[in-house]
Each structure stands twice: as structure tokens, then as C-alpha cells.
Write a structure and sequence with these properties.
The chain is mostly helical. It has 13 helices and no strands. The longest helix is centred in the last third of the chain and has 26 residues. It starts with a helix and ends with a helix.
């Protein structure tokens, strides 16, 4: 169980900016457990968001609360996945040959496509949070979206080919098996018990990952860490849209 504990702490250290003053060893066992704990970290981040939403719901205007939640969401992850989104946007927007796209993705400079992708994603997330709050959606939605987004990252790492035998995606992939994908789903089972319409959210995520994985494999001949990070951001945005659509039309 020590490996499982180290794996959880490793996942928290990697996926968030929550303080974990423990040096966790990187081994096959701890990295495998870390991947299994990706959705659990998402649940932790979602619990913080849901808690803040419940505390401030009747104390601040809804637009301001949506902005607070979005700001907290970005701060908790340290913008890690947004960085991946921006790198992918610059590479795709260049319309350059494959080798040049990889160079652009690795370039630390930020281009216009990266800025546009960042602005539009944050704007859409803010508006959807506002709409969900106005619709009085179940607080479990804020738990589910970060958790499912990180579950999607595990699925992508486990099922999509790595473009190169180097980098973070390749390092994580080395110790990931199909059984680990099932383990990573376990933390979500209790959540699904409380959330109306959870099969729709899960189906929407799987559909997004299928299309996204095919598109990235076609564009880059596989995935890397930036592509996985962009999948988390894109998956979260898609799930927010599906949750709002479900709550506004099916539940309304």
C-alpha cells in the first residue's frame, strides 16, 4: 500500500499546485498508481470548487462567482493543461509540415493561435459556469467534470499511440496497462450514484476522446504530454457544455 500512497501523492504533485511536502519516488509501481489516481485528484479539485460554490452561492452575484470558480480552477492546476492547449494550438495553426509543427510545439514562445485558444477556452468556460450556476445544477457537476477530464487523460495515454519515445507521455505510458484504466474508473463510481445523467456525461467524454485522438494521431502521428493536457482542457469544456445542455433541456 505504500506504493499506492506514493502514487496518489505523485498524482497530486503533478496535476495540481496543492502543497505536498513529500519526496515521492518514481518507480513502475508508483507511476502506475499515480495514473490510477488521476480521476481521484480530479475529484479533489472538484470538491474544492463545489465547496467554494456552496459557500459563496448566496453571498456574491452569479457572474462574479463564475469568475471566482474559473480563477480557482486555473490556480489549482497551475495552468499546466492550458500550457499544453496553447502549444497544440500554435502547432496546428501554423499549417506547417509535421517536423515544423513539432518544433513549434516545443518552442517556449507564445504565438497568436495560442493566445486565441486560451482566450476562447476561458471565455467559454466562464460563460458555461455562469449558465450552470443560474440553472441551479447539482453541485456534483463540479465534482464530475475535473474527475472525468483526468480520467480521459488516462484513457488517451492508455489507448492512443505515443508520437515519440520520449517526453512525459512516453514516461507515463511505460507502466500503464488496460487493468489500470479500470482501476482509474473506481473513484468515479460513487460520484455517478449522486449525479443525474452521468451516463450521458461519460458517453460524451468517450465520443470527444475518440474524435480528438483520431485528429491528433492524424495531425501529429500520435500523442505527447501537450496533447494530453489539451485533451483535459477540451474535455472539461465539452463536459460543461453537455452538462448545461442536459440540465437546461432534459431536466428542465
Amino acid at each position: 500500500m505504500r506504493e499506492a500512497g506514493y502514487g496518489l501523492l505523485l498524482a497530486v504533485q503533478f496535476l495540481s499546485r496543492l502543497p505536498v511536502p513529500v519526496e515521492c519516488p518514481w518507480t513502475a509501481a508508483t507511476s502506475r498508481w499515480a495514473l490510477r489516481c488521476y480521476p481521484l485528484v480530479g475529484l479533489l479539485l472538484g470538491a474544492i470548487l463545489a465547496g467554494v460554490s456552496l459557500v459563496l452561492h448566496d453571498r456574491v452575484p452569479t457572474p462574479l462567482l463564475a469568475l471566482v470558480l474559473l480563477s480557482l480552477w486555473v490556480a489549482l492546476s497551475g495552468g499546466l493543461h492550458l500550457d499544453g492547449l496553447m502549444d497544440v494550438a500554435d502547432a496546428l495553426g501554423s499549417n506547417a509540415p509535421l517536423a515544423r509543427r513539432w518544433e513549434i510545439m516545443k518552442d517556449p514562445q507564445v504565438g497568436s493561435f495560442a493566445i486565441l485558444a486560451l482566450l476562447f477556452l476561458l471565455a467559454w468556460k466562464a460563460m458555461l459556469l455562469w449558465a450552470l450556476l443560474e440553472a441551479g445544477t447539482h453541485p456534483a457537476v463540479l465534482l464530475a467534470v475535473p474527475a472525468l477530464g483526468r480520467f480521459g487523460a488516462v484513457l488517451l495515454l492508455g489507448l492512443a499511440p505515443c508520437a515519440r519515445r520520449e517526453g512525459l507521455a512516453w514516461a507515463w505510458r511505460q507502466h500503464l496497462g488496460h487493468r489500470d484504466l479500470l482501476f482509474s474508473l473506481v473513484p468515479l463510481l460513487l460520484l455517478f450514484h449522486w449525479l443525474p445523467g452521468w451516463p450521458g456525461l461519460l458517453a460524451a467524454l468517450l465520443g470527444f476522446l475518440l474524435l480528438y485522438g483520431l485528429a491528433m494521431t492524424r495531425a501529429f502521428k500520435g500523442i505527447n504530454g501537450d496533447i494530453v493536457g489539451a485533451a483535459i482542457e477540451g474535455g472539461e469544456l465539452w463536459l460543461l457544455l453537455i452538462a448545461w445542455s442536459w440540465w437546461s433541456f432534459a431536466m428542465g
